[in-house]
Amino acid sequence: MEPLLRIENVSHTYHTPEDEILAIKNLNFSVEEGQFVVIVGPSGCGKSTLLSMVAGLLQPEEGQIFLRGKPITGVSTDIGYMLQRDHLFEWRTIWQNVLLGLDVRGITKQKQSRAMELLKTYKMYEFRNSRPSQLSGGMRQRVALIRTLAIDPQILLLDEPFSSLDYQTRLHLADEITEIIRKENKTALFVTHDIAEAVSIADRIIVLSGRPAVLKRDLVVDLPAVKPIERRGLPEFRHYFNTIWKELDANAGERKEEKAALS
Amino acid sequence: MPENGKKKKQHSPRHGEYLARLKRDRLIVSLSRVLVLVLIVGLWELATRMGMLDPFIFSSPSRIAATIARLWTNGNLLTHVLTTLFETVVGFLIGTGLGVFFAILLWWFPRAAEVADPYLVVLNSLPKIALGPVLIVWMGTGMPAIITIAVLISVIVAITSVYTGFKEVDPEKLLLLRSLGATKFQVLTMVILPASVPIMVSALKLSVGMSWVGVIVGEFLVSRAGLGYLIVYGGQVFQLDIVMAGVVILAALAAVMYYGVARFEKYITKKTQA
Description:
The complex is a heterodimer.
Chain A: E1 5-15, E2 20-31, E3 36-40, H1 47-54, E4 62-67, E5 70-71, E6 79-82, H2 94-98, H3 100-105, H4 109-121, H5 137-150, E7 155-159, H6 167-183, E8 187-192, H7 195-201, E9 204-208, E10 215-220, H8 228-231, H9 235-262
Parallel strand pairs in A: 3-8, 3-9, 6-7, 7-8
Antiparallel strand pairs in A: 1-2, 1-4, 4-5, 9-10
Helix pairs in contact in A: 4-5, 5-6, 7-9
Chain B: H1 13-49, H2 55-58, H3 61-74, H4 77-108, H5 110-125, H6 132-139, H7 143-167, H8 171-179, H9 184-195, H10 197-221, H11 227-236, H12 240-272
């Protein structure tokens, strides 16, 4: 059966007046429906580039990306993109912020009531008339997720959504957000450079190397689907952590050697 | 920003001392401000009375007050004030409005913005007043010429400051809109414009000052009414009392208008931004 998302021979180069930088090299993988896939890699390895391409904001220079067998050629409501920072608009109330995607796409009664349901289910209803600045960082990110879910996408792209939060809020929000995504039965492609975070939330982890990003390891995380914070306490947690750590570290070592050879 | 919208909380005596200290400091500054004014006016008056300054050349506070009263009862002071006020307000509203309009055009057509850049730089540094005589030839010696000078002076600053504001809107906010499939027009109306409201209001504040300059210079050059006219007229008939009266009224009006716009800016910023 055709997977939900298929990335096929994708390569991408960035061009600047000074240089061209190969960001992604011949990447191949697919994501099955309902999977929670986490992409781990060092900072600046092209993870965000990959998400931009899946979101249809950027066309890969080589290769193609398919959603249910159809090539992605532009932005669509099948894909919900959640950015690092919440970017809630201060001139809109929480409710109006949640409706942003629908305002852009055209509001239907049905979609609006769905958005209202989400707001109620995830305990943000009482804040619907508040301004973003009145909410805590964690609550804001939850609203950002609801805003993304309101357009009812088939796949969620999350670009280090917890990285702008303090550690405690991060842990709490990881619990909440994974719970919401699992409950809503969404497929997720989640990008992070935090190994522990990856192991605590993923069904499957894809390890990318530093620039240019190539696929180093594709790993199924065989841990129970419990809260991320509980997963962190499991004995197998360390095992996965170490495996990925070694993978990334070997990679960093190679780069060091390369640099040494060059200088 | 702490606001007094919240109910007053109980606080410790030490906090009370701190608040009292704050209040006292503010009071000292306010009183000193008034004192400076009283001192200047008083010394000026004293110097002219004691013969250290010639009141015919330097005027004096009492003579200025008398002149203002005389001009008022003669009935034409109000006309002068209203004329200048009208020209200034129309000048800065049109100036800011056009500024926002051109800034939108520049944002919409980045290529055009790049082409226009050196011209804007030159126009920005050119003293627009130099174009005054040209405008009089083109537009005649009436109010339209004066307002045009005011608009010309304020519009360039408005364009550059608003356009810079547009470009400083967080690119990730634009990315968010694009990922939702927004059109360029939606990006403009849903992010760029609302995010730039404070910048537009602060451009308004800049324009107010510019517009005053334009209007007064315009009135110097042409016109039969307005404070600029009054000042030039006073100079020509060597009545320094009239000149000073004009300047004092102008200062008061400019201050009131500036504070009005500044208050408006504060209000808007609080309403739309975190």
